[in-house]
Amino acid sequence: MKKKLVATLACTTAALLMAGPALAKTGDVIPNSYICVFNKKAVNRGAVQSEANRAANAAGGQVGHVYKYTIHGFSTHMSAQAVTQMKARNPSISYCEPDRVIELSPIQATKGKPGSGGGGSTGQTTPWGVTRVKGGVSGVGKRAWIIDTGIDATHPDLTVNTSLGNGFVTREAGLTDDLNGHGTHVAGTIGAKDNSIGVIGVAAGATVIPVRVLDRRGSGSYAGVIAGVDWVGQNGQAGDVANMSLGGPVDSALDSAVLAASSVVKFAIAAGNSGDDASNYSPAHAGADPAATNIYVVSAFQQTDTWVYFSNYGSIVDYSEPGVNIESTWKGDGYNTISGTSMATPHLAGLLLLGAVNAPKDVIGDPDGNPDPIGEH
Question: 281 with 248: CB under 8 angstroms?
Answer without folding.
Answer: yes
